[in-house]
Amino acid sequence: MPGIDYNRLRREISMRQVLELLSFSPSPSGCRGDQWYGSCPLPACASRCGVTFSVHVSLNRYTCHRCKSHGNQLELWSAFLQTPLYPASLELCLALKHPIPWIHRW
Questions:
Q1: Torsion of CA 71, 74, 78, 79, to 10 degrees
Q2: In this predicted model, what pLDDT tens digit does every residue of 43-70 receive, in sequence order?
Q3: Contacts of 39 (CB under 8 A, 6+ apart)
Q4: Is residue 62 within a helix (H) or strand (E), and if so which, with residue range?
Q5: pTM for the full predicted model
Q6: Domains in the chain: boundaries
Q7: How many CA atoms lie within 13 A of 45 on its CB side?
Q8: Alpha-carbon dihedral angle through residues 45, 47, 48, 54, given to the nearest 10 degrees
Q9: What is the CATH number of domain 3-103?
């Protein structure tokens, strides 16, 4: 099975795209430039209300201060689907109609 070039995928798919797929909307006072705040979109998080989720859209990093989940845009999608990174990355590419950046030789 070929591998996925995760570095390339992180460069080509933005945090904004993933947040849009998750239907994330920051709280009304939750945008301070590229730093956004709102409710955690992850199904494993008990917080559907309150501002516990922080995301820096230009750095492609997120943190939930309630469920302690954190990472980049691929890890966010993986946490949302509650699947490992490899199948989650394939799903993300399909959802965004983005070509999968395969690595055929290690």
A1: 30
A2: 988 766 678 999 999 999 999 999 999 9
A3: 27, 47, 48, 49, 50, 51, 52, 53
A4: strand 61-64
A5: 0.93
A6: 3-103
A7: 24
A8: -90
A9: 3.90.580.10
